[in-house]
Amino acid sequence: SITGKPILLNNIADAEAFVSGAEVAVIGFFQEPESAEASQFRQAAARTPEVPFGLSSSPAVLSHYGVSANTVSLFRRVDNDRRDLDMNKEDVDTEKMIRFVRINELRLVTEYDPVTSIGVMQSSLRFNLLLITDKMSPKHPERMRRFRAAAELFKGKILFILLDSNLKSNEQVVSYFQLKKSQLPALAIFHTPDDEHDVMTVDEISTERVQDFCNRFIQ
């Protein structure tokens, strides 16, 4: 395809380099690279430009990852997790593959919406930190840069989430933390097993401030 996706992974070294080179990586394992399933996988890859897709039909690679044929696996760095979609068990089409990727593509900073929220709730990370902010603000890129820098420090411990206060579907979350628009941006941290949470309004995000807020809550 014109987009150069998916990338062909011919051996274990290629596959491991591919997985470690991205926050989120998807590999389709197919015994028959020209099968109908593989062609649907290629369509899913073309329609999900922001996620790297690889394809392998190497028996060594399939056995290295412990998969039988026709499996789509998503690897994510944020919590070192892997999710598998077994196409032999159910009827999987391009739409289902894309939805599987969208639900499970947790990143260092995951943007919250009705689809990603499902993956957030299934994450193995018990602490979630939300930056509730207006994405349209001219200060947004710089805020995100600092928030991401803090996310690097808590990789594998806390899931960092961006919540755009402009999205209608997010209003419920904002009101759950009893925040008004005038108080934003704000940080909200919570411990998923018991819903314990803490909220802090911030005029300016600094990496240190985020770090202190997280450390205090975890302790």
Keywords:
single chain; 219 residues; alpha/beta; Glutaredoxin; 2 domains; five-stranded mixed sheet; 8 helices; 10 strands; elongated; disulfide bond; redox-active center; signal; repeat; EC 5.3.4.1
Outline the structure in words.
The chain is of the alpha/beta class and about 220 residues long. The protein is about 35% helix and about 25% strand. The protein is built from eight helices and ten strands. The chain has helices at about 10-20, 35-45, 60-65, 95-105, 115-120, 140-155, 170-175, 205-219; strands at about 5-10, 25-30, 55, 70-75, 80-85, 110, 125-135, 160-165, 185-190, 195-200. The strands form two sheets. A five-stranded mixed sheet has the order 1-3-2-4-5, with helices on both faces. Strands 6-8-7-9-10 form a five-stranded mixed sheet, with helices on one face. The radius of gyration is 19 Å and the shape is elongated. The mean pLDDT is about 95. Belongs to the protein disulfide isomerase family.
TL;DR of this structure?
It catalyses: Catalyzes the rearrangement of -S-S- bonds in proteins. The chain is α/β, with parallel strands linked by helices and 219 residues long. 35% of the residues lie in helices and 24% in strands.
Number of helices: 8
- Major beta-sheet overview: 5 strands, mixed
Tell me, rounded to a whole number, the average pLDDT: 93
Neighbour order of strands in the largest sheet = 1-3-2-4-5
How does the helix and strand content classify structurally?
alpha/beta
User: Helix proportion of residues, in percent?
Assistant: 25-40%
Number of domains: 2
CATH topology of the largest domain: Glutaredoxin
Question: In what range is the share of β-strand residues?
Answer: 15-25%
CATH homologous superfamily title of the largest domain: Glutaredoxin
Order of helices and strands: EHEHEHEEHEHEHEHEEH
Name the CATH architecture of the largest domain: 3-Layer(aba) Sandwich
CATH class of the largest domain: Alpha Beta
Q: What is Rg?
A: 19 Å
| Poorly predicted sequence stretches spanning 5 or more consecutive residues | none
Alpha-carbon distance between the two ends: 50 Å
Pfam families: Thioredoxin_6
Catalytic activity: Catalyzes the rearrangement of -S-S- bonds in proteins
Subcellular location: Endoplasmic reticulum lumen
Keywords: Disulfide bond, Endoplasmic reticulum, Isomerase, Redox-active center, Repeat, Signal
